[in-house]
């Protein structure tokens, strides 16, 4: 499997990424991915795995993969397997869910070969000749996995190899026994849930008999209560009659309150109208009188208004004359000062100084007379204004009295109507009370010692509720007695069945213990004695030794995986031993420096990836052509010094066991000159990546 091109949209920190750009494809051999922490180097690997196998491969749910503030993510990956080219296009959004399509290139065109999650996964297993777990363990060396191998105990190391290789036949055997044991546990649990000892059954029968005695006593008490309540209800009117009485009483109370309110309104209206009673003849006479007063008063108001208007006109005329005389006096006075010839301002005749002065005196006398006249007229007008106000006040009083008289007539009609309703209600109430045998409502209430009809209704409702509840309770108790009697019959026939069930439970428990022994001892022993010792360990040694020599500059030349026996604290294991060429001795990982342990563990993990596609745990297992010949290494160099890192990179450059090796690192190393580099960097709130050849 060779990766060719990667397109990422809104996946984790990558908003819009095409790698490599233009028509370039990922080259073969080693490709280094570098950049600062938290820029998204591991997210590139996650995008590849998610595109191939979905969220299961990255241990995250789909919504956690979408870039912040986006609503969808999409990854398109082109890859090559055994000379054939494929493209997988996977998209996810929370509204529509997952969409994935697998294409195969035929005659320069992409042909759809699968378009559902299950069908794409099945087709991918077929193309790679590996199931999901094996393919992931072949393709990806996770961050921290090398350190886990370096620090693993023999038991942990053995379990790591079993989990990584996922040996199918042994898993099937173990799964079959697990299913068998689970089935037995379910049967035992189901039988145990239903099982009862004969002694407990006999005790339950005694409890049933005791409950029947208590139920019988309770039924007698309930029957006495029913008889007493029915006797009380015989003398009380039925609910329908009480409801009718309550309705009439409520209506009477409301009408009485309305009558009192309307009578008060009538008294107030009569007082405003100047009447002692709302007699129709008196009211009409009062209205006629008020009409005449109104007409006479309105005539007086019109006469006063006419006089005020005449006075206003006369004052206006005198004011105009005075204004004209004032202007003439001013003109004549000015000519006296200027010693000019003077002409009469009225007829333009030349005037002598004496004539001019006489004329000024005459004009001033006329203005004074006009002012005196205006004062007399204003005094008269003021009196007319006062008379007009008195007239308006009399008109308002007449209007108020008229309105009050009309309202009194209307209120009298309402009072008469309400009194009629009260009489009808009283007659209807007397009729109903006569039917129930009492003369009035107070007598009815005193008879049953209540203060209101609603209290009597509540009393009846309480009696009826008590009666209904007592009858219902009696029926339930009688049903309980029947159930207890039936339960006694069931218990009496159950003892033999429980003895048989107890024997069956014990037999199933023995079989279950035998099955667990087979799974613990035989299947686990088969893994240790056959699969690991006779087949798997030799293949791993051969694939790993090459990397051990390369990564340690031939200080260490080979490894051995030595099976260990089970102990009280742990199961069987594999002890990793390394041959030190310099010291000519086998050493355990605990005897090595941390850097040497890391180099050996990386060698072992690469050897595992190299063998994953072609491993055959049993002699008769089918031969499979290796197809996943790429590996993604996520930060494996952290525990190595500068010389070791340079040695690892140099040898990975020349490694022909893999078509491609993608190596993530944020550590500076030597020896990568000429090696393609994917530079990952932050760009604002997102990340970007570029391939430098």
In short:
By secondary structure, the chain is α+β, with helices and mostly antiparallel strands. Helices cover 62% and strands 16% of the residues.
| Percent range of helical residues | 55-70%
Radius of gyration: 59 Å
Q: How much of the sequence is in beta strands?
A: 15-25%
Tally of contiguous helical segments? 15
Strand order of the largest sheet: 2-1-4-5-6-7
User: In CATH, what is the homologous superfamily of the domain at 244-447?
Assistant: Helix hairpin bin
The backbone outline, from C-alpha atoms, is flat
The CATH first-level class of the domain at 244-447 comes to Mainly Alpha
Largest sheet: 6 strands, antiparallel
Low-confidence sequence ranges: none
The total strand number stands at 17
Helix vs. strand class:
alpha+beta
CATH names the topology of the domain at 244-447 as Helix Hairpins
- The overall pLDDT, averaged over residues, is 82
Name given to the CATH architecture of the domain at 244-447: Orthogonal Bundle
Intertermini distance = 21 Å
Describe the fold and architecture.
The structure is a single chain. It is built from 15 helices and 17 strands. By secondary structure, the chain is α+β, with helices and mostly antiparallel strands. Among the domains are: 167 residues, Rossmann fold (3-Layer(aba) Sandwich); 81 residues; 204 residues, Helix Hairpins (Orthogonal Bundle). The strands form four sheets. It has a six-stranded antiparallel beta sheet, with helices on one face. A hairpin with a 2-residue loop joins strand 16 and strand 17. It is flat and about 160 Å long. The two termini are 21 Å apart.
């Amino acid at each position: 499997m060779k990766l060719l091109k990667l397109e990422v949209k809104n996946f984790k920190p990558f908003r819009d990424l095409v790698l490599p750009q233009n028509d370039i494809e990922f080259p073969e051999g080693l490709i280094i991915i570098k950049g600062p922490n938290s820029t998204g180097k591991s997210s590139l690997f996650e995008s590849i795995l998610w595109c191939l196998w979905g969220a299961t491969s990255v241990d995250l749910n789909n919504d956690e993969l979408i870039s912040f503030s986006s609503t969808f993510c999409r990854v398109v990956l082109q890859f090559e397997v055994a000379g054939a080219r494929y493209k997988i296009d996977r998209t996810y959004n929370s509204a529509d869910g997952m969409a994935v399509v697998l294409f195969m290139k035929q005659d320069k065109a992409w042909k759809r070969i699968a378009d559902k999650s299950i069908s794409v996964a099945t087709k991918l297993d077929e193309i790679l000749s590996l199931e999901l777990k094996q393919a992931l363990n072949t393709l990806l060396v996770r961050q921290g996995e090398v350190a886990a191998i370096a620090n693993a105990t023999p038991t942990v190391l053995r379990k790591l190899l079993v989990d990584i290789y996922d040996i199918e036949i042994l898993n099937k055997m173990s799964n079959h026994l697990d299913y068998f044991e689970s089935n037995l546990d379910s049967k035992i649990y189901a039988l145990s849930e239903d099982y009862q000892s004969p002694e407990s059954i006999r005790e339950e029968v005694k409890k049933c008999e005791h409950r029947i005695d208590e139920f019988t006593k309770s039924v007698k008490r309930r029957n006495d209560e029913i008889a007493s309540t029915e006797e009380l209800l015989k003398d009380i009117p039925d609910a329908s009659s009480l409801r009718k009485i309550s309705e009439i009483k409520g209506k009477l109370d409301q009408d009485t309150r309305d009558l009192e309110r309307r009578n008060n309104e009538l008294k107030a209206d009569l007082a405003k109208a100047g009447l002692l009673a709302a007699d129709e003849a008196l009211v009409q006479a009062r209205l006629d009188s008020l009409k005449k007063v109104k007409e006479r008063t309105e005539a007086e108001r019109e006469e006063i208004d006419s006089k005020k208007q005449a006075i206003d006109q006369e004052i206006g005329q005198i004011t105009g004359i005075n204004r004209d005389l004032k202007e003439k006096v001013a003109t004549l006075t000015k000519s006296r000062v200027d010693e000019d010839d003077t002409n009469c301002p009225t007829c333009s005749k030349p005037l002598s100084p004496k004539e001019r002065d006489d004329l000024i005196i005459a004009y001033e006398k006329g203005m004074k007379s006009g002012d005196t006249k205006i004062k007399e007229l204003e005094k008269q007008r003021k009196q007319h204004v006062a008379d007009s106000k008195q007239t308006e006040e009399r008109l308002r009083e007449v209007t108020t009295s008229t309105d009050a008289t009309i309202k009194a007539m209307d209120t009298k009609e309402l009072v008469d109507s309400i009194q009629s309703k009260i009489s009808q209600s009283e007659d209807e109430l007397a009729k109903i009370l006569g039917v129930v045998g009492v003369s009035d409502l107070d007598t009815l209430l005193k008879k049953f010692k209540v203060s209101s009809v609603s209290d009597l209704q509540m009393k009846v409702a309480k009696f009826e509720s008590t009666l209904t509840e007592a009858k219902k309770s009696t029926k339930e108790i009688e049903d309980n007695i029947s159930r207890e009697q039936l339960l006694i019959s069931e218990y009496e026939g159950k003892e033999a069945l429980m003895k048989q069930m107890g024997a069956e439970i014990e037999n199933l428990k023995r079989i279950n213990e035998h099955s667990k022994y087979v799974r613990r001892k035989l299947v686990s022993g088969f893994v240790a004695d056959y699969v690991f010792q006779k087949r798997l360990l030799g293949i791993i040694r051969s694939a790993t030794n090459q990397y051990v020599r390369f990564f340690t500059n031939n200080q260490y030349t080979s490894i051995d995986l030595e099976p260990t026996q089970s102990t009280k604290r742990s199961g069987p294991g594999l002890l990793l031993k390394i041959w030190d060429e310099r010291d000519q001795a086998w050493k355990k990982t605990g005897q090595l420096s941390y850097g040497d342990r890391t180099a050996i563990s990386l060698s072992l993990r690469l050897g595992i990836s190299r063998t994953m596609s072609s491993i055959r745990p049993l002699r008769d297992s089918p031969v499979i052509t290796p197809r996943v010949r790429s590996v993604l290494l996520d930060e494996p160099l952290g525990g190595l010094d500068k010389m070791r890192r340079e040695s690892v990179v140099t040898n990975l450059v020349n490694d022909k066991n893999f078509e491609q090796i993608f190596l993530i690192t944020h550590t500076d190393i030597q020896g990568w000159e000429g090696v393609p580099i994917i530079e990952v960097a932050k760009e604002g709130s997102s990340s970007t990546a570029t391939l430098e050849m």
